[in-house]
Amino acid sequence: MEILTTGEMEQADRLAIAAGAPGFALMLHAGQAVADAATDLAGQGPILVAAGCGNNGGDGFVAATELAARGHDVSVILLCGRDSLKGDAALAAKGWKGRVLPCDLSALGSPALIIDALFGAGLNRPVTGDPQAMIEAINANGAPVLSVDLPSGINGTTGAIMGVAVRATETVTFFRKKPAHLLLPGRIHCGRVRVADIGISDVVLDKIRPATFENIPDYWQGAFPVPRIDGHKYARGHAVIVSGDLTSTGAARLSARGALRAGAGLVSVLSPDDALGANTASLTAVMVRRMNGAAGFAEILTDRRLNACVIGPGAGVGEETRALVLTALAAKPALVLDADALTSFADLPARLFEAIKETGNTDIILTPHEGEFRRLFSEMSNKHPLRSKLERVRAAAGRSGAIVLLKGPDTVVASPDGRATIAANAPPWLATAGSGDVLSGMIGGLLAQGVPAFDAACIGVWMHGEAGHEAGPGLIAEDLPEVLPAVLRRLYDRFGIDY
Ligand SMILES: NC(=O)C1=CN([C@@H]2O[C@H](COP(=O)(O)OP(=O)(O)OC[C@H]3O[C@@H](n4cnc5c(N)ncnc54)[C@H](O)[C@@H]3O)[C@@H](O)[C@H]2O)[C@@H](O)CC1
Ligand SMILES: Nc1ncnc2c1ncn2[C@@H]1O[C@H](COP(=O)(O)OP(=O)(O)O)[C@@H](O)[C@H]1O
Ligand SMILES: [K+]
Fold this sequence. Notes:
Layout: E1 2-3, H1 6-18, H2 23-42, E2 47-51, H3 55-69, E3 74-78, H4 87-95, E4 100-101, E5 113-117, H5 129-141, E6 145-148, E7 170-174, H6 186-190, E8 192-196, H7 204-208, E9 212-214, H8 217-220, E10 238-242, H9 250-261, E11 266-271, H10 276-282, E12 287-290, H11 293-301, E13 306-311, H12 319-331, E14 334-338, H13 339-343, H14 349-359, E15 364-367, H15 370-376, H16 378-383, H17 389-400, E16 403-406, E17 412-414, E18 420-422, H18 435-448, H19 453-471, H20 479-495
Parallel strand pairs: 2-3, 2-5, 3-4, 5-6, 6-7, 7-8, 9-18, 10-11, 10-13, 11-12, 13-14, 14-15, 15-16
Antiparallel strand pairs: 1-9, 16-17, 17-18
Helix pairs in contact: 2-3, 3-4, 9-18, 9-20, 11-12, 18-19, 19-20
Adenosine-5'-diphosphate (ADP) binds at residues 339, 369, 407-409, 411, 426-428, 430-431, 433-437, 439, 464.
């Protein structure tokens, strides 16, 4: 499903109006959708609408009118004088025949529901003064809060808090989600998110051409790998995972197990001499091969059947890992660079990015967490410290020439071609040692099956989040590969694939 920035949403609005939908009709639909959600939340109790002076407040007036017509006890508090409302918002306020309370915090009372219609897409500066006091009072009131479009104070495009922001129980937005409904901290302030149809046709998307999508199965169903009935293990690809030395072999094994469970036909751990014993003693379905440094690695990669490679988990930081990465880039298998493979280039990121661009290989994925991202893209982050996560990852993909996947509760995947996805399905107990190692392996396993890199990254992130839910609280990294069959089974069911 597409995600629209507030600018793209304005464009949708303009295109819909140009195609014949009156602007006020869109506001009427929006207000009605808010009224529907409010009825579900408030029961029969009194409802207070906190309205701002723009069209978000206009939606609030329409909702108030609709709810009063349905028999609810409704009152409205308005941030400004009624006569300063303009356009559709003024029209909406005209339809409201009930009380309008002045902007007095004591007027909030004890409603069964507060409808937050202070600011939506038009928020363009930090919140101070009366609106700030109003937002703080709404948060302190204790009543459930229904936010119109966005929790007031949240920037719709970046998800940032502009000084202070409403904490909603539920948010009703219109036509499509905005980045703030998925990116933190915005998502935390939204509560449940409902997307309402307000009469804007999907046809407008042909003109807007949005490049940001929610990372959900509908988005990548077409790229999801399904083993062929007449296939064999070699047809499902062979992923190789580079192991660290004797003191750090577990990360590569976790990664390898993730690759195998994600469907690679074969998985090998490439092990330095000193770690051969540890790796062979702890692996069964995953194979182990001796690898003597970068020269040995280059020799192994001449076998083109080894079509996907993961370097980084437990690899160690330094010149040896840098040499392994440059070797893999030259050999051109589909490649995941994670953890130490990224940190090894912290002091010379340009060397990595040049090598990536020189290969012409488009199947390269970098999978940093925030710390690794900052190390690798520090120059860029220092120049634009206020960018949103979405913008930062997009810029990093452009800068590096690779797919960049920035982990966290709102993992963003971006491609140098401009596409990006945001995932919102990861539970917090995924933040546990080794969980990222499994993710890099899962993506390697998908690449081995021939899934294009951007899709492989998106599918890996989504399945990793679902595996987190499947294993539940108390999860440790070892659990993740073991619950993948259940996640895959549900995907097969959802896609209607026989098994
Ligand atoms: N774009 C669309 O397709 C639709 C938009 N609708 C509604 O319209 C909203 C956007 O309306 P507007 O563009 O009028 O914007 P808003 O109603 O979000 O707010 C704009 C007003 O707030 C002021 N303002 C901004 N930041 C402020 C701050 N920090 N402190 C004090 N005042 C501040 C602005 O100067 C302006 O007067 C959407 O969020 C949505 O609720 C709906 O009516 C349905 C259709
Ligand atoms: N608060 C959170 N909510 C959901 N997922 C999270 C959260 N914090 C981290 N994660 C996920 O947990 C994984 C941790 O990966 P990483 O930091 O690389 O750990 P490790 O190096 O120990 O494997 C990533 O997939 C990340 O997206
Ligand atoms: K709002």
